UniProtKB/TrEMBL annotation, chain A:
Record keywords, A-Z: Phosphoprotein
Keyword Transcription regulation among UniProt keywords: no
Source organism, top-level taxon: Bacteria
Gene3D superfamilies recorded: Globins, STAS domain
CDD domains the UniProt entry points to: RsbR_N-like, STAS_RsbR_RsbS_like
Protein name (Swiss-Prot/TrEMBL): RsbT co-antagonist protein RsbR
A GO molecular-function descriptor: heme binding
UniProt xrefs under InterPro entries: Bact_StressResp_Reg, Globin/Proto, RsbRA_N, STAS_dom, STAS_dom_sf
TrEMBL record, chain B:
One Pfam match: HATPase_c
Record GO terms (molecular function): kinase activity
CDD domains: HATPase_RsbT-like (cd16934)
Native source organism of the sequence: Thalassobacillus cyri
Keyword annotations from UniProtKB, A to Z: Kinase, Transferase
UniProt protein name: Serine/threonine-protein kinase RsbT
Amino acid sequence: MDAKLKSLVLENSNDIVKMWLEEVQSNKNKEYTSTISDELFESTNREFVNVIFSSIENQGLSSELDDFSERLINLGWPLSYLTDGMQVFRRVTIDFILSQSDKVDSEYLSRVMQKVDAWVGPIINRLVNEYSGSWEHIVSLQRVALQELSAPLIPVMENITVMPLIGTIDTERAKLIMENLLDGVIKHHADVVLIDITGVPVVDTMVAHHIIQAAEAVRLIGSTCILVGIRPEIAQTIVNLGIDLTKFPTKSSLRKGFQSALELTNRKIVTTEEKDESIEKLIDSLDGE
Amino acid sequence: MDFQSCVNIKKEWDIVGARQLGRDIAKKIGFGTVDQARIATAISELARNIYLYAGSGKVCFEAIDDMNHKGLSIIAVDEGPGIEELSQVMEDGFSTSGGLGAGLPGVKRLMDEFDIVSEQGRGTEIKVVKWLR
């Protein structure tokens, strides 16, 4: 009987495809496909239904299915398009088979449903797996990318390094900041480290606590930590919270922090002689000849 | 503007979500940047307390609009172990987790109104209000 069902469905594939296309087209009004052009939607539907039939015919999942889902993932089609499509296919096929049979008892009905499920189930599973696999891949890539960005240490000058912090600081990142800071201070022989919090949106007690600990650890290995980039509103909230940041120097901007870092390492910024003057001198000396 | 929206706190990153929603609502009400920072920080403290001590809970926001007053009310609710000694946690420098111990007293200073109800074994509910001036 299984083989009979299969041949019935395959022989009448045109009718089923027609019914399926009609149903899926009517689903197009739903929000998720409204931005897709009619032509593309139609051609994708045809391809989709061909993929379904070829995998039923070949008694298994074809590489066509993988190719098809991969292409849809790359185009950014929602997963719900595929799962909805498969549900519609299940419904349409069962309807069709039942309409072709003379007598329908409960046993026959359950056999039909089982058979159709056996066709549809694996395809849905494969599609969902492909999609979630690609999402997991993206998430893991972004996690790595974020981690690389999360606590950079830049040696700007001999003995002076800067750690610019941008974005939210959570416990995991705070740990990374501490490790990178201490490693970097020793690696670059830094006397002064500037921690720039211009890009940190909220400084609560947890963030302040981690910064204080990091600064204290830097002090223990013999360097000075300067906290820079404290915006006025952050300064006010720190005062309201009652956080004590007097143990290390703080500055409003990286520029000011850098100046005091230079002072701490016995250096200063000197403006060189103006270029215009030297050119004039050059011209004068040329005239003299 | 009479709506209430909540953020469930289960993971550490939910704190960021609560903060962002709170900041957006505060901006809509018309708070300035300094008050926005205060509100975001207060939400951060309340949400972190839920995450650290109760494990899970929620933070709700409500825009208040009286005849002559506008403001934002934030309610943080959890069903955690509760707070043993309320007067102690409102002291500066008291912490059971090795933190700075500035969280709750800090929130009280950041906001205009502060209400705390805690029952041991039942949970904690903190309601704070910031008025628009």
